[in-house]
Amino acid sequence: MKEMQTQRIVIKVGTSTLTHETGRLNLHNMDCLARTLSDLEGMGHEIILVSSGAIAIGRHKLKMAAPPAPD
User: Fold this and answer.
1) Per-residue pLDDT tens over the stretch 35-59
2) What share of the chain is helix, strand, coil (3-state, %, to 5)?
3) How far is the C-alpha of 32 from the C-alpha of 29, rounded, in Å?
4) Could you say which of 5, 8, 13, 44 would form a disulfide bridge with 17 (CB–CB 3.0 to 4.6 Å)?
C-alpha cells in the first residue's frame, strides 16, 4: 500500500486580517480563519500559522497608540 505524505501548509496573516481599521479585533475574520485551518487539518494537512498582526492586537489591548521605541 502506498503511504501518503502529509502536505505542510504555511499561512501568514497580517494585521489587516486580524483587526478592523480601528485596531479592534476582527472576530469574524478570526472565526473564518480558524474554521478553514481546522478543515485543512482535518483533511490531513500540517498547518503552520504565522502572524505579523500579533503586535498590533497586543498594542490595542494595552491601549498603546504607537509601537514601543526600539532600544
Assistant:
1) 999 999 999 999 999 887 667 777 7
2) 40, 20, 40
3) 5
4) 13
70, 31 Cβ separation under 8 angstroms = no
Secondary structure class of 58 (helix, strand, coil): helix
pTM of the complete model: 0.69
What is the Cα 46 distance to its own chain's centre? 15
Specify the DSSP class assigned to residue 22.
T
Cell triple for 70: 526600539
Residue 71 · residue 61 · CB < 8 Å = no
Pick from 60, 59, 40: nearest CA to 49: 40
C-alpha to C-alpha distance for 30 and 35, rounded to whole angstroms: 9
